[in-house]
Amino acid sequence: MNDIAMKRPRVVIIGGGFGGLWAAQSLARLPVDVTLIDRKNHHVFQPLLYQVATAVLSPGEIAQPIRRILHRNKNTEVILGEAVSFDKDARHVVLSDGAIVPFDYLIVSAGARHAYFGNDDWETEAPGLKTLEDAVEIRRRVLLAFEMAERDAYLAGDQRTLTFVVVGGGPTGVELAGAIADIARKALAKDFKAIDTSTARVILFEGSDRVLGTFAGDLSESGKSQLEDLGVEVRLNSFVTEIESGRVKVGDEWIDCDVVLWATGVAASPLGKALGVATDKAGRVLIEPDLSIPGCRNIFVIGDMASLMQESGEPVPGVSPAAMQMGVAAAANIARDLKSEPRQDFRYVNKGTMATIGRSKAIAELAGMKFKGFVAWLMWLFLHVFFLIGFRNRFAVMFEWFWAYLTRERSARLITGDAEELGEATRLIRARSAPDRSEQK
Amino acid sequence: MNDIAMKRPRVVIIGGGFGGLWAAQSLARLPVDVTLIDRKNHHVFQPLLYQVATAVLSPGEIAQPIRRILHRNKNTEVILGEAVSFDKDARHVVLSDGAIVPFDYLIVSAGARHAYFGNDDWETEAPGLKTLEDAVEIRRRVLLAFEMAERDAYLAGDQRTLTFVVVGGGPTGVELAGAIADIARKALAKDFKAIDTSTARVILFEGSDRVLGTFAGDLSESGKSQLEDLGVEVRLNSFVTEIESGRVKVGDEWIDCDVVLWATGVAASPLGKALGVATDKAGRVLIEPDLSIPGCRNIFVIGDMASLMQESGEPVPGVSPAAMQMGVAAAANIARDLKSEPRQDFRYVNKGTMATIGRSKAIAELAGMKFKGFVAWLMWLFLHVFFLIGFRNRFAVMFEWFWAYLTRERSARLITGDAEELGEATRLIRARSAPDRSEQK
Chain A contacts of B148, Cβ < 8 Å? Predict the structure, then answer.
């Protein structure tokens, strides 16, 4: 054996989301040393983030420390740190504090955020939902809007209709709109005395001609009517063209609102561009069929950061099952390299998709079959609890859901934050009732 | 009946802690209208705050929306707002945004924070533990210190001993020190690979000659040795005289440390001074025996904000049972006014005190009897679950505790916060390893 064969290759993974975790798990039994680097100490179970944003679950119930998840992997080290650039020739990652992490193989799986279509200043007014911090911020704004309406009604007799706007009719937008309509009509109704929370408007704007556009037409149609059953106003073919404090412009119409949430567009992690290879408009890296980047067989990009066409001509979708499959596939190609076997091209296997809309409401496509309403919702419920990482979380979430289902109560209705965060959220909600607003109309 | 008798008196309560909540509950069946005003939308079960700070429980498990707790009280309105001043003659409260809330009776129960003995700039370096935000900040710093030590050890081979300093040997300081020692030795040990978390030092500084000074001498002695069993270094007669980033000065000795927590001193809410009556050095209002303030029979001050001597010559202690009893007593005196009966003086009934030190470790004095160790800990456990507000929380917390007891795992080990919060916490912990530190010594 020569020196090179004796030294175990170092695999560095950037990102502890679904792609990075599945890669790390697949590498656990290979003769490699793995270093997983993430900016956060925890993995977030993103499919349930909207439940934190709408006060059903607590942050701790959908997140788990990454080093806890991987603590049995003897070849794996987890590091809290922010990768900012790469030296492909010297084969190392540079962290934000200048520290250097060398690699033989690199797997970049740093995900994506929402894109504001060139209007990044909208983010303050209309937060997206990608991290636990986002979810807590959205929860703060939604609950604070009800609190402030109650206060104005009680102290000044000022009765006005609360309006929540959700921009984007994909799964996240639909989940948020459905859940807000649900808490306004059920969970909060008994606790507020000066206002009738059930009169709150929830408006969902979607630019295309249907919501949940990745589903078959009839399921998408069913999703829309299930949303409307919950009281959500669904406006299709509607583009939001301006967002100001307290109002949004849709086409030529200004709509006053208390809270705006953003759930559309994709902006891949800037680490894609930092790799110095071609990216698409959303910043996704155009990867090779074996998931490596052009010209660097030892660097893989996976998950929402990657852009890859399937044989069908459709792109691999930016969903968590695709990220998991890519993580496993990148690890398998590293294993093939170690055994000097040829790499295999990645093939995405669509095992089905589902979207939840609200209590007892969902749609699903599984194994060529379509499901709507309560059955689809039950399937969604069990699959999500099943995949939730960590036994404890699974149990705690089941208890919360069972409790919420029985009592229609929301257990995590906390408005937290330091004075600055609360002040900012208050300012944004207050903007609607500001005296100069009527003049601007 | 005349006009005055027909109009229901308005009782305004400032603060939704134990004092304010117990007052509101006692007023629920009286012919009065109650308005409870709090800066937060939630009541926090303060005795369990240290469990959030040490990652056992999630914020949602020890907090409940105030309007949820009181939602059955038909005469009670809950308002999110910050009282800033009072007009005693015009009988109204002024909120931070200028809104005016009129009252016939006022009960001020806005609590206290820790005092930094004139060194308010120490708060950034050494946070106290009074709110959920405080608890999350402490959790962030404690977990981040371990993460950064792991990272330095892995990337740079830099092995150093983590040091946690807790200032103040009262119940909060003892609980924090015990819990940090416990997670370092048990919960985190298996998850960190480059460092041995069990070598972390936890030092508790107490200015007097014993910890838990409100307990009998032998219990206090037992508390100290139980702490030492957990690995905490207890230093009595030790005053912290300086705090800088990364180190504290105790007497003439500088001690390097990664995290400093503050758990001593009392600074009553500034609302006491805003009432324009005499206060003690800690800002507590010197109240009359019927809990009203001098010269204003319709204004009561209760809880940690109030200073009152018992017949024994001892002051009523600043503990939650005293705040609850005062809340009930203030409401009872209002009820007596309504029936034109004479008011009664407040008498504090000490039903016993207990302090927890760690897993299976506690001390208690109940009904003249003294308990130590496991028995005291079981009593503490059941009493705290029993008093925890809200059935759901009670159940969830029992589950968490049972789980933590069985597995020694900590379920809420999340480092959250926006970039600014994390950056600040990182800077503070990093300070210790800064190159200019050695020169300063």
Answer: 80
Say whether both B34 and B175 belong to one domain. no
Residues 184-203 of B with CB under 8 A from A: 190-194
Q: What is the CATH number of the domain that holds B240?
A: 3.50.50.100
Tens of pLDDT along B264-302? Answer: 999 999 999 999 999 999 999 999 999 999 999 999 999
A98 in the same domain as A26: yes
Min Cα–Cα distance to chain A from B189, Å? 10
Domain boundary among B338, B363, B395: B338
What pLDDT was estimated at residue B178?
95
User: Among A59, A77, A409, whose Cβ lies nearest the Cβ of B193?
Assistant: A77
Residues A230 and A157 in one domain: yes
Determine the distance in angstroms separating the CA of A436 from the nearest CA of chain B, rounded to an integer.
17
CA atoms within 13 A on the CB side of A339: 9
Mutation site for A-interface testing, chosen from B392, B408, B430 by largest number of A Cβ within 10 Å: B392
Range of the domain at A276: 3-39+81-114+266-338
The whole-number pLDDT of residue B141 equals: 94
Q: Check whether B441 has a pLDDT greater than 50.
A: no
ipTM summary value = 0.85
Distance linking the first and last C-alpha atoms of chain B: 78
Please check whether residue B183 lies inside any domain of the structure.
Answer: yes
Chain A 115-154, residues with CB within 8 Å of chain B CB atoms:
132-133, 136, 143-144, 147-148, 150-151, 154
CATH number of the domain enclosing A25: 3.50.50.60
Instruction: Assign A384 a pLDDT band (cuts: 50, 70, 90).
Output: confident
Q: Residue B82 CB: number of other CB atoms within 10 A?
A: 17
What number is the average pLDDT over the span A3-31? Answer: 89
Is beta strand A285-286 parallel, antiparallel or unpaired with respect to A306-307? parallel
What pLDDT, on a 0 to 100 scale, did the predictor assign at position B438?
39
Q: pLDDT tens across B301-336, in order?
A: 999 999 999 999 999 999 999 999 999 999 999 999
Sign of CA dihedral A71, A72, A74, A76: negative
Instruction: Assess contact for B17 and B111: CB atoms under 8 A.
Output: yes
Evaluate whether B83 touches B95 at the Cβ level (below 8 Å).
yes
With CA atoms as reference, the chain B residue closest to A134 would be B418
Average pLDDT over residues A358-362: 86
From residue A188, alpha-carbon distances to A51, A55, B34, B404 in Å are 15, 11, 20, 32
Q: Collapsing DSSP states into helix, strand and coil, what is residue B45?
A: coil
* A411:B101 CB<8 A: no
